[in-house]
Every structure is written in structure tokens, then in C-alpha cells.
Amino acid sequence: MRNRVFIVSLCFLLLLPVNEISAGIENALDESTGYEGSIFQGNDENSGQSSSNEAWNSLSEATGLNEDRSSRDKDPNSQDDSVRVGCSDYVLTGERLREIRSEFMYWFFDKGGDDDEGDYLKEIQASTPQTNKNFNFQLPFFGFRFNQTRVSINGYLEFTDPPERYTYPLVFPVKCWPKENDPSFIGIFFSKCRIGEIWSTDRDRRKPGVYFRIERDLRTRKDQLGVEMRERLKWDVREGMSGAEGFVPKHAITVTWKNVSFTGGIDNSLYTTNTFQMVLATDEANTYAMFNYPRVEWTSHTEAGGDTVHGDGGISAFVGFNAGNGTGSYEYKPFSQTPHIRDLTRAGWVNGFPGRHMFKIDEKIIAATCS
Ligand SMILES: *[C@@H]1O[C@H](CO)[C@@H](O)[C@H](O)[C@H]1NC(C)=O
Ligand SMILES: *[C@@H]1O[C@H](CO)[C@@H](O)[C@H](O)[C@H]1NC(C)=O
Ligand SMILES: *[C@@H]1O[C@H](CO)[C@@H](O)[C@H](O)[C@H]1NC(C)=O
């Protein structure tokens, strides 16, 4: 297993110059300014049609193709061929699709919108570890359906109330349910986190903290980011999970925890940070979760036995899913609550990326297995 991971990593390194790898992984979206006119359409409650894509449209000749792979992998039942191309509609070329799919991290923005904070959740701070978000659509998860969530600094999305306190290692479903609450949650790095710091030399200048964006009604979107999000996610899921060949996302949620440190550490530990990103895609019947881990520098907060300098030792973060109400849980082994959690950045290999993992999560949780 170890050997194989090593060999595959070598191949990857041979294929790409090092600077390209780190560029892909850091995803410094240099052209992000090009999106600023349209990126908030998806987050806008009364989302109308965007009109600011002319510059970008002129970049891509109207080749009439939204995806060049469709001829190869076309599912006769998929509905995405019904997209009609009007003169102001964004047209995605095959070349552009390959380019965006070669980036590791999905889009998140720190600029734009009413307050020019982009997707940044400025309400999440030391005193406020979580915030509520409405979906305005149904997200099937682990046998339930939710139309809202709580985004937590602590590396998870929570749908129902937690127990009063946790002890380590975490065990789900919560043993004393129904006396204690058994929360429904998606845990990408369930721990106790605090917002860290970045070095003045860090290339990605986006603020440390939590970023949240929703892209709704992807099937009818004509703006550049809507079309690109739909096609990118569609092909990443189709090629990432077996059985997803006909999947077309309707709605997507991207939550990024950037440069978060652990609670209980000394001041300097704020520079020991993790970055991870969850992308949820649903057609309101099937739901897929992608976990991207570009950076895992610490494993445990101090209450779970981590040391105060490096956040190391003790019981590592929990990675997995809990259905709630005592109905079931899924812990992602061998990473969750073990020192192997550091290997998350090197394992997975979904869509050819070390550090990318994928799951089907609407009913029973199924992990993608990359052979
Ligand atoms: C969410 O669903 C609940 C019922 O489960 C409903 O009462 C509520 O109005 C819904 N909220 C939104 C914003 O759709
Ligand atoms: C912050 O996160 C970015 C992206 O993961 C990383 O390149 C950078 O080194 C991190 N900075 C610190 C201080 O950990
Ligand atoms: C659990 O049970 C409570 C009370 O019966 C109910 O309100 C809730 O919707 C159920 N589902 C989840 C996921 O907690």
C-alpha cells in the first residue's frame, strides 16, 4: 500500500514540474478578478441572469460545445443536452474545462458581494464558532433531508443539535441517545479549531477563516461560473464515483476552512495551520461529498490530548459522517482519529489528485475507491 502510494506520487511528480503542482494545489486563482461581476449570482437570493460576462464570452469562440467529452461519455438519459446557447450565454470550451479540472481546489472568493468580503464568513470568530445557512433546496443526507445547516469553525457542517459535551475518542452514534442528542453532521476535520495566521510570504493572500458559497440551479445557469461549476463538478463526480455516470448537479455548496489552527495552543501555534475544503453536489436525490485536503499540519486540539505547540499526539480529528437520532455513522478509516490522518493529503487520488476523497452520502455512505 505504502509502496504503491509512493510510486504513484513519483509518477505524478514526473508528469508535472513542481511549480505546477504547487500552483494547482494552492489554487491561487490569478484570474479571479474576471469573475467579480458574476460570482455572486449563485448566492443571490433573487438570482437573476448575470449580464457581465461579455468579456469572458468573447474569449471563448462560440464553438457550440459545452463539453467536449460528452461525445465520449454521453448518457442518453442526461438532461444537460437541453442547454440552449443564446448569444449572451457563456460557452465552455473543452480546453477551458480541462484547465479548470486540472486545479485541485474549487473556487472560493474573498472579494465581491455586498460587503466585498466574498464567501468569507466574517461572523465566525473566536466568540462565535458557528453560523446558520439556508439552502433553499433539499439536501438528502444519510437518509434524512435538510434545507439548512450550521457551518462550524470546528471542521464540520451540522444539521441537528449536538450533545452537551464530547469525550475522546469520539464515538458515533452518541451512546446515550436519546437521553443525549445524537447530531447529524458531515465531518471533514471534526476537531476544535481556531482561526490561524498566514505568513507575510504566503502566496495565497486570502484571509484565514471559513468560506462558504452556494451555487443554486446549476442546470439552468448561463453565466460563466455557473456553467463552469456545473460541468467541472459533473465530470469530477462522474469520473470519481462508480455508478454516477448520469449525474448532473442541481445545487452545490463549497465550504473551505483556510489556515485554521487548533484550540489550546500557544500563540505561535497559530502559524501551524490546516486547510481543507468540502464540496457537496446534489440533484436532490443523490448527494456527493468531495473532501480536498491541501494541508494538514496538526492533528489534535489540546483537550483531545494534542500538545500545545504542534497540535500533535493524542486523539486526532474525526473524519466521517453521522446520521443522527441513533440511526448510523460512518468513520473514514484508516485516517479518522489516528495519526494516519496526516496521510489524507497524500491519499484519495480521486480525479487523479492526491488529497482528494469522495463519498456518496444521500443514504448509506459509500467511499470512492480508486484502483
Ligand atoms: C425547511 O424545512 C422545514 C421543514 O422541514 C420547513 O418548515 C421550513 O420552512 C424550510 N425552510 C426553508 C427556508 O425552506
Ligand atoms: C496557509 O494555507 C496555505 C494554503 O493551504 C498554505 O500555502 C500556507 O502555507 C498556510 N500558511 C500557514 C502559516 O500555515
Ligand atoms: C430526529 O428526531 C427528532 C425528534 O423526533 C426530529 O425532530 C428530527 O427531525 C429527527 N431527525 C434528525 C436527523 O435528527
Automatic annotation (TrEMBL):
Keywords from the UniProt entry: Disulfide bond, Signal
Protein origin, superkingdom: Eukaryota
Compositionally biased residues, Polar residues: 40-63
GO biological process: cell-matrix adhesion
InterPro entries reported in the protein's UniProt record: Epithelial_Barrier/Signaling (IPR051495), NIDO_dom (IPR003886)
Ranges of Basic and acidic residues composition bias in the record: 66-82
Keyword Aminoacyl-tRNA synthetase in annotation: no
Pfam families, A to Z: NIDO (PF06119)
Domain called NIDO: residue spans: 198-364
Region of interest (Disordered), ranges: 36-82
Signal peptide: 1-23
Listed name of the protein: Protein mesh
Source organism of the structure: Apis mellifera (Honeybee)
